[in-house]
Amino acid sequence: MADPRRGDVGDQARELLTSADVTRTIARIAHQIIEKTAFGPGNTADLVLLGIPTRGAVLARRLAAAITEFTGAAPAVGSVDATLYRDDLRRGPARALEDTAVPEGGIDGKLVVLVDDVLMSGRTTRAALDALRDEGRPRAVQLAVLVDRGHRELPIRADYVGKNVPTSRSEKILVRLTETDDGDGVLIEKEPVEPTTEGDDA
Amino acid sequence: MKHLLSVADLDAATATGLLDTSSRLKETLLGREVRKLPTLRGRTVVTLFYEDSTRTRVSFEIAGKWMSADTINISAKGSSVSKGESLRDTALTVSAMGADCVIVRHPASGAAHRIAGWADKDAATTGTHTSIVNAGDGTHEHPTQALLDAATLRDELGAIAGRRIGIVGDVLHSRVARSNVLLLSTLGAEVVLIAPPTLLPTGVAEWPCRVSHHLDAELPALDAVMMLRVQAERMHGGFFPSAREYAIAYGLNENRLRLLPEGAPVLHPGPMVRGMEIAPAVADAPNAKVLAQVRNGVHVRMAVLYHLLAGAPE
Q1: Residue A69 forms part of a structural domain
Q2: CB B40, CB B70: distance < 8 Å
């Protein structure tokens, strides 16, 4: 599966968020979700955090843990795989499917917060929205992302953003989380420098 | 993956990938009111059946429909086949009409391979891509049955590698047995064929499995047992003295069920002949996973269609 976020870290990689930054950012988003949704011990029925695998699902679980720590109440958390709803399936070999786990109680009438690691074109988010429509009818859907790197191709924006990063299309954003990688952090990898031919005045 | 003709073409990684996709699809659709995925919208899947079948054809049709493909069924009865059209002409006609996938069942071993060869040759000149799926060819293979059996065994046993699986009965006429021996051994299981000598094919010694004629001796050491239907319609001679004698020697009755380890799953590809290879009480026992196999059949066939049709053509 060609996933630019999973490439090896080359020499050109620069650290955008350290491990401590990632922890702080997740805590901040958790606080924002609590503030915006009025989630707390008296109001637990409404909120469902759904991560988009792989790393979005990890982030959703981390956010849920942080919200539990701050409020003493645990929000429902799960994952929704958007692969079957993607619009680019025909552009490559068949992709492996990821875990879909909608918490008991479903999403009908709930406030769903979709969680992903990187927001770029918005196409994955659109696919996830389509997947949600087949799961049920939420009262509202919000979007939380760790990194918004721009280059939107659809009218989609995030409600909670960990960090806005202006990037060029050829750069890679590498999100690393302990559960899936070795340690936390966000790296940006510059485009590989092509060996230039001398005298090329193009 | 361009076609699915034989499980011999699947390596362990590909087969495991198909089983993983199948269980993901199952969990995705679990508890949903609308069991419809948009993934194969605009694709056309044709089932072309030259032999009677209910479960396989309906299972493929449901699988296609749940993935939003348009599914069309052709049976040899009532088509141009009864006017004398050849297999090649029928298959290429269906392909020329724009079928993205043709699912074939035919009484001749190797029929699906032949069709795939013709389709590829046609594709080279016309640029069309038609995937062929073997849904049973004579006594040769039935890959999706083996995949759904493997999916069921994985659900029940947690894993397939290292488990000992017994396949009991009419191996000679069974494409299910051949596909299962190949797939289960690819996935690392130890397979034991248990049958009377008359119901074993020549060349079985070359298969990646052990052969036994004594059911009672094997049962206590099996992790799961798969009963095969006695295919009376393919038998034109005395393969065993009588149905009663067969049932006594190789039928799974309640006493034999007790020889199996506690809770060991019993599989049967169906249709079951109760009283012959499986006693009615065993067919209805909690060990019997026949309906779980049928349920997995839909998801496995969805997975096959997904892997053949969802990605870019090869």
Answers
A1: yes
A2: no
Residue ranges making up the domain that contains A160:
20-167
Going from the C-alpha of B224 to that of each of A69, A79, B211, B218, B295, the distances in angstroms are 46, 33, 16, 11, 18
A159 touches chain B (CB under 8 A): no
Closest residue of chain A to B306, computed from CA coordinates: A94
Q: Is B234 helix (H, G, I), strand (E, B) or coil?
A: helix
Q: Using beta carbons and an 8 Å cutoff, which residues of B are at the interface with A? A: 1, 17, 20-21, 24-25, 27-28, 31-34, 36-39, 306-307, 310-312, 314
Q: Which helix (H) or strand (E) holds A187?
A: strand A185-189
What ipTM, to 2 d.p.?
A: 0.85
pTM of the model: 0.90
* Domain containing residue A78: CATH number: 3.40.50.2020
User: What are the structure tokens assigned to B261, written together?
Assistant: 């380890």
A193: in domain? no
pLDDT value for B82: 73
Q: How far apart are CA B45 and CA A28, in angstroms?
A: 50
DSSP H helical ranges for B30-171: 55-66, 87-96, 111-126, 143-157
| A131: in domain | yes
| Residue A8, pLDDT above cutoff 90 | no
